Amino acid sequence: MADQLIRATAADGGIRAVGVITTRLTDEAKRRHQLSYVATAALGRTMSAGLLLASSMKRPESRVNIRVKGNGPLGGILIDAGLDGTVRGYVENPKIELPPNAKGKLDVGGAVGREGYLYVVRDMGYGYPYSSTVELVSGEIGEDVTYYLATSEQTPSAVVVGVFVEAEIVTASGGILIQVMPKAASDEALVQTLESRVAALSGFTPLLQAGKTLPDIFQQLLGDMGLVQLPEVQLLRFQCNCSYERVLGALKLLGEAELQDMIEKDNGAEATCHFCGEVYQASSDELAQLISDLRAESSV
Predict the structure, then answer these.
(1) Which of 82, 86, 115, 178 gives a 20 to 30 Å CA spacing to 19?
(2) What is the pLDDT of residue 104?
(3) Contact status, residue 80 vs residue 65, Cβ threshold 8 Å
(4) List the disulfide bonds (predicted).
(5) Residue 227 class from Cβ within 10 Å (0-12 exposed, 13-18 middle, 19+ buried)?
């Protein structure tokens, strides 16, 4: 199944639902960053959460950044997701591995740490980005993003995200976001019903492994609440905006003395993009050209 995002509504527009499949893009991130099992799960969950949050934005260039900084050995997570369906991200310590937790699952909470902060920045595509910070609830990502939505955006929500890695390959990854909109927030019975149904889920990836599609999952949760599944299916992908030209521009900022030192000591330069792991090489001739450009600019 292709990585995708679909949307739905229920209760006459009082409920908003979004679902994502991110199996392939999470597997690509695992390969690019050579992630451990638990690091793969942590990054995959966060990328899914970022795409879910970005889905409510309006302008095509809108993006969401999520940074998770806990007290666990993983260090931190940073992802960048867009309304256009692109996402990228990395973890600080990609090699760490932990034993399974008490439920026999990958211990994402232990890797992230249960004390720390979740930072969310929404870039609407105009004006100043909106930023918010909340304390971590569990380090499991889904619960932390749910808490962020309830406290910072005042929207009763449920976020369920998951990643399953088998034999070095990501075989299931994705998540769902269910939100009660203001027009239905006062309906306590509706809210309680949703909470109980989400709580009854065994997780997200078991549903995928059982062969359920996103429409199937929506039907299971909201089928008796006037479910309306929107026809548009948005394709998702891991994509980074780094480029060789950007790397040269960054090297140029180092200045003439640093560039000359690279030529003499290393006979060139190497740069690796944190977000996607792409490695860029700049030869001594290319560094010399940057020096020439700097000199020409200073003489103007």
Answers:
(1) 115
(2) 86
(3) yes
(4) 240-242, 273-276
(5) middle
Question: Which ranges of the chain have pLDDT less than 50?
Answer: none
For residue 4, what pLDDT is reported? 98
Per-residue confidence (pLDDT) for residue 117, from 0 to 100: 98
Half-sphere exposure of 217 (CA within 13 A, CB side): 31
Cβ neighbours of 94 (radius 10 Å): 20
- Dist CA 191 CA 186 (whole Å): 8
* 179-204 residue pLDDT tens: 998 878 777 888 888 888 888 887 89
Q: Whole-prediction pTM value? A: 0.92
